[in-house]
Amino acid sequence: MNLNPKIFESKRPGSQDVAWCPGCGNFGIRNILMNALAELGLTPQEVVIISGIGQAAKMPHYINVHGYHTLHGRAIPIATAVKASNPELTVIAEGGDGDMYAEGGNHLLHAIRRNPDITVLIHDNQIYGLTKGQASPTTMLGMKTPTQPWGVFEEPFNPIALAIALNASFVARTFMGYFKESVEIIKKAIRHKGLAIVDILHPCVSFNKVNTYQWYREHTYWMEDHDPYNREDAFKRAIESDPLPLGIFYINERPTFEEMSPAYKRNKMPLWKREPKIEEIKKILDSKRRF
Amino acid sequence: MSENTVVLGERENVEDEFLEKVNFIEIPLSRMAKEVGSPLYLNTVAAGVIAGLFYADIEVLEEYLRKRFASKGEKVVDRNIEAAIKGYKLGRTLCEEGIVGVEVSRDRSVKDEILLSGTEAVALGALAGGMNFLSFYPMSPSTGVAVFLAQHAEDFEIIVEQVEDEISAINMALGAWFAGARAMVTTSGGGFALMTEAISLAGMAENPVVIHLAQRPSPATGLPTRTMQGDLNLALHAGHGEFPRIILAPGSIEEAFYLTAEAFNLADKYQVPVIVMTDEYLVDTYYNIPDIELDRIKVEKYIVEAEEDYKRYKLTEDGISPRAIPGYGKGIIVANGNEHDEYGDITEDGELSRLMQEKRAIKKLETIKKNAKLPKLVGDKNAKYLVIGWGSTYYVIKDALEQLNRDDVAFLHFSWVYPLRDDIKELFDGKVLIDIEGNVTAQFAQLLKKEIGVNVSYKILKYDGRPFSVEEILDALKEVLE
């Protein structure tokens, strides 16, 4: 069993030129993720990260696992299909708050319904970092940005409450400043059978001057006496706004998309190993010989 | 409709202008249906009338109705049979009294033939081509393919998923291919329009994908249940940036089977979007064909095992980088929609960017072009006149030319629509070109002009949402031929 996170450090030449700003929370999330993967005993060959667009979505380039850096908001459908095509892989969809909650919002809603066995990691810094500081769906009320100079007046998106409302399979929130706890949450999310959503709070040191490392420490707390199998309690916690609860809000064990698919009812082989069923085609053609 | 056309029906449902043009025979379909118990049986009565006119075996019709309505209970089955018999008797009477003269002799040789629709041909072709993943959002007339495949998903052990929107559908298909599956989406113009962002991703990431685009008249929602060949420019130009694609357009139901199967090998080999263009006319048409030669289909797989230092976007002479997939081999696969180095990591390097653009848009395109299929020539290659068509108009043009019966008119049909081989230019040399297509701006003629610099002399275009009839083409040809 591998317990060394170093095997997830990429040696590819392009991986050495990291675009994240010094002090960016994404570095911490990468460390957390590498440790979680190592502690789960996974190898780089078993893991795929599908990302959208944004600073968070650059993760596949700075880590040694399979990756596909795709389009803004589209990581979830692609990750869903990767898992469905090869259930032997551990599949993670990764992106920022804009990626998953704005451009990809519809896909997130329907992924919750579909329940593929993937882990969705949302780097939530409450701002658009890649495009230099516009408000995101989770930006706090009143925050002024170059494109919201009057201050944000739209109600911030509450991903946790939304996911619980839709009866999501696994819903958690963490702050990347808490290393050990975050590793544990991500391990549980990956190990969870079904769609696991982890909203990971992290600061954007360049474009979000409000939600700093210190702000997150002061405005969050760990849920200690919470039963994640109780949906009503989970929802009550989810709508608390200050301080924000951290931890696993809700677990709802239900069949996954792949499990329910007729493709795997009798046959567990990944799709790439399969051949067309010519005999079945013959049968259908024969049935067309009359009428 | 010609002067020989016979219309059977109820007078109040036929417009006056038609009554003068055709032989109209009034039959009381509604009354007969009501006599059976409900106006709902009208369709079955009408089917019975037709069966009667052709002296068909009523038992065959009864057996069909029994199967068709079995789930609705005995009463519904019985009533439908009653309705069919009622209609059948009327049909026979019309013939016997000499009101309608239908002379058909029974052709025993077609007894073992297959009755197939264009929809079924696309779906079965996809299965034969190794398709094991279909994601779609319902849109006429493309949905039939998904319906057929969903109903057979368990037997074929494939994934068929109706998703939240077309954007998700095609992105899923890309993900499935990335993981080694053979995936397809089935859609129509409006849905395809939404997919263009991901088609661009397929171009950049060199992600194979097969798209069935069943055309209907547009723009926007257009004429949802009618037919047109109006989306060629959309298919040609969908997606931002420069990258190759392959566009196929079967001319017949048989070809819909073989070409759809072939689309998967092409996507796998060249790692580009392959668009199979049909239209409402082709997918909703049924006719019998002798057989499907399943032996003709060869599933060619191009997936390689990833070695230790695998480079997803290795620069090669022919522009094709060997494609590995996660879960097979020791190497790590990084695909990317940003400009990338050979490993797939983001690059801003000018020289690398230039090489990657050339790899995709020039080298790969040239490789595809060299291996492109030639159009099919019907008639004499020295004919003075050359009729040009693409896609579903194959048989209707062919039939018109047979009736025209002139040695100096030949027909060139394109089912491999794009990219075109450079050497096809000689096929047009010194000929008078007559372009026939179902759209308003002659999109295929534009393509010929742009790609190989030929000009058509005449255009026969139809864009009222209806398919061409043989008579229409014949008349139009007579006008332009000397």
What does this protein look like?
Chain A is an alpha/beta fold and 291 residues long. Chain A has 10 helices and 8 strands. Chain A is 31% helix and 15% strand. Chain A has an 8-stranded mixed beta sheet with strand order 2-1-3-4-6-5-8-7, sandwiched between helices. In chain A, α1 packs across α6. The radius of gyration of chain A is 20 Å and the shape is globular. Helices cover 41% and strands 18% of the residues of chain B. Chain B is built from 17 helices and 19 strands. In chain B, the strands form 5 sheets. Chain B has a 7-stranded mixed beta sheet, sandwiched between helices. Chain B has a 5-stranded mixed beta sheet with strand order 14-16-15-18-19, with helices on both faces. A two-stranded parallel sheet of chain B has the order 1-2. In chain B, α6 packs across α7. Chain B is globular, with a radius of gyration of 26 Å. At the A-B interface, β2, α2, α4 and α10 of A face β3, α6, α8, β5 and α9 of B. β2 of chain A pairs parallel with β13 of chain B.
Major sheet: arrangement of strands of chain B: 5-4-6-7-9-8-17
For the largest interface, the chains and their residue counts are: A-B, 64 and 76 residues
What Rg of chain A is obtained from the alpha carbons, in whole angstroms?
A: 20 Å
Succession of helices and strands of chain A: HEEHEHHEHEHEHEHEHH
Overall strand count of chain A: 8
Question: Which band does the percent of strand residues of chain B land in?
Answer: 15-25%
Q: What count of helical segments of chain B does DSSP give?
A: 17
CATH 4th-level superfamily of chain A? Thiamin diphosphate (ThDP)-binding fold, Pyr/PP domains
Class by SSE composition of chain A: alpha/beta
Domain Thiamine pyrophosphate enzyme TPP-binding (chain A): 56-200
Domain Pyruvate ferredoxin oxidoreductase beta subunit C-terminal (chain A): 204-265
Protein name (chain A): 2-oxoacid:ferredoxin oxidoreductase subunit beta
GO molecular function (chain A): iron-sulfur cluster binding; metal ion binding; oxidoreductase activity, acting on the aldehyde or oxo group of donors, iron-sulfur protein as acceptor; thiamine pyrophosphate binding
